[in-house]
Design brief:
The chain is an all-alpha fold. It is built from ten helices and no strands.
Length: 239
């Protein structure tokens, strides 16, 4: 098997993983925040997932990132996991997971449009935009009948949080794509999880969330799913 073919196989497996897992995370987050405070729920998730991931990678001999790469990883981790994911978790206290998923479905479209406006970026063809449009239409068909929301108060704030989350995720994605780094993507994902988890946990502790952090059965299952499936497999595949 050629190296190029092998890379394609792994790329398709990563894409398949994201396609199956990504949408389920919003439901798991919704289940979690019904019982747990948002920042510690998110922060502990990333800290535990990142620590497990990091230990596994070190055991198999994955090298540590350089100091220069740590700055690169801190920017991406803060933008994509710390800020973007933190806003999603906070937003789902007030809005349905279906609406969140529907809004996040526009992310590939906005990322593609934003990237196409960058100097020297490759221009996309009609097929790319047709695929993005069909994907969004499919999600609209799935979720639109189950969305019942009034745009006022905390619900409006939740929608604003999701919008800001999209902006932050686009920044992190494009920054990671166009900034050169020698760190392995898997090690990079682990470090990003640890950085984002630390920031979210510190903020949650500062806001007094620890006294409200108590699992019930559903929130525990959601928490474990987000650690082992959504974080390690899903985000690892994305990176």
């Amino acid at each position: 098997m050629s190296q190029t073919y092998s890379k394609k196989i792994w790329a398709y497996l990563a894409w398949l993983s994201i396609s199956i897992i990504w949408g389920t995370t919003f439901l798991a987050i919704k289940v979690g925040v019904e019982q747990l405070p948002p920042l510690l729920f998110a922060g502990f998730r990333w800290l535990i997932a990142g620590a497990i991931f990091f230990v596994i990678l070190r055991v198999i001999g994955m090298p540590l990132p350089s100091r220069k790469d740590l700055v690169y990883l801190a920017i991406i981790g803060t933008a994509m996991l710390g800020f973007s994911n933190g806003l999603i978790v906070a937003a789902e206290q007030w809005i349905p997971s279906g609406l969140t998923a529907l809004m996040i479905t526009t992310l590939p479209l906005w990322t593609t449009v934003t990237e196409s406006m960058l100097p020297g970026a490759e221009k996309n063809n009609r097929t790319v935009y047709l695929g993005l449009g069909l994907g969004f239409a499919g999600m609209l068909l799935i979720f639109s009948g189950n969305i019942d929301i009034q745009l006022k108060g905390n619900q409006l704030l939740g929608i604003l949080f999701v919008f800001l989350s999209i902006v932050s995720w686009i920044f992190g994605t494009l920054f990671s794509k166009y900034r050169e780094s020698k760190v392995h993507p898997m090690m990079g994902a682990a470090i990003q999880m640890l950085i984002a988890g630390s920031l979210q946990t510190l903020l949650g502790l500062g806001l007094g969330e620890l006294s409200r952090f108590q699992f019930d059965q559903n929130s525990l299952l959601a928490f474990l799913y987000l650690i082992f499936v959504a974080s390690m497999l899903g985000y690892g595949s994305y990176m």
